[in-house]
């Protein structure tokens, strides 16, 4: 199978996954959703509110370590095989402009300029790509506004015009980068180009021309040797014509190379006619020089996955053991209060309940210390998904209770708050203090 076909399969899988993931929910929670209007992060089907965004830190660590690992292993492999910009270019230039509307002669020659005339086809290609960009921008938005809300919002444009503004900006950016900047985006705009050179080494897998077999095409000053004809390279320039970033890989490795391997496929086609293997292969500089195997197992290629696995396991553990409610307890400034009949001691608190589950629940709490009772609130109360409520709680203890022996000292009390309709699953325990008067 050619690298091009493999990349197309990869692009299809990535597109399918990114389109379907926002629609998959478990008990109303998404795999990944950073909702600014609900002030929530949903990750691995668990909800976090804005005061507990620590999973984002883990995600960023995993993201950056992932980039370091992939780049150390395969250079700019992300660019050629998974980057949305590359997918947009393949859809616009290769599929629409070349295959369907014939505005370029062949996808094997990306150096030719677009054909003159054919205005209807040009407009049609542009409009179809605009629809594709609108869908891609909506898909991107679904990770911030879930699809169920997104489609409800666009039915009421006057009330949700910000959604339309952001949607339009995302669409315009996709159109501009894929339609106008083209591969200049990969070469000049994307910051990844600049940082990737610090992560690769001589064992990193890259697109490499074999000058031992093919012959030197460029001299030490990177000037093309025009008349020399030793080696297997036929100088057909098929590898140059097909290159989307307009480089000649025979001049050596270059920052512009996105590892798409189109040049390798092109050379393979040419060399096949001569019963020879492609002169351009996906290998490491060391393996190419020593004519050996690529050294995949290295310190960095082991250290990064270990660090990623630790961060991922910690994230998964904390996510799966996370509570669905939050309770913050603050004491009143008054230390304690005697009841009117002088028979009991009361302490007043402010309980801040937050329902971070995706469903509405009835909440209440109990005190696990046997000598302390709840005076108020007397009944469970309702909290919608994401709702916060502050309740004044008065705890009371009989003046003659066993607590008397500890008079004057703050006594630790354990509060167990819970969803009355699901108390085994949604609960939280918090420590507070109860102050009893001195004798
Ligand atoms: S040199 Fe080859 S692998 Fe690199 S961008 Fe050009 S065609 Fe793709
Ligand atoms: S496609 Fe192969 S044979 Fe043709 S110019 Fe490139 S390296 Fe040489």
Question: What does this protein look like?
Answer:
The chain is of the alpha+beta class. It contains 14 helices and 16 strands. The longest helix has 23 residues. It is elongated and about 110 Å long. The model has no long low-confidence stretch (mean pLDDT 87).
How would you briefly describe this protein structure?
The chain has helices spanning 3-20, 54-74, 77-81, 84-100, 119-141, 147-153, 161-181, 184-189, 192-196, 211-214, 238-241, 262-272, 285-290, 299-320; strands at residues 25-26, 29-30, 32-35, 40-43, 46-49, 206-209, 280-283, 325-331, 337-338, 344-355, 361-367, 372-376, 381-383, 388-398, 410-419, 427-435. It has 439 residues and is an alpha+beta fold. The strands form five sheets. Strands 8, 9, 10, 12 and 14 form a five-stranded antiparallel β-sheet that branches.
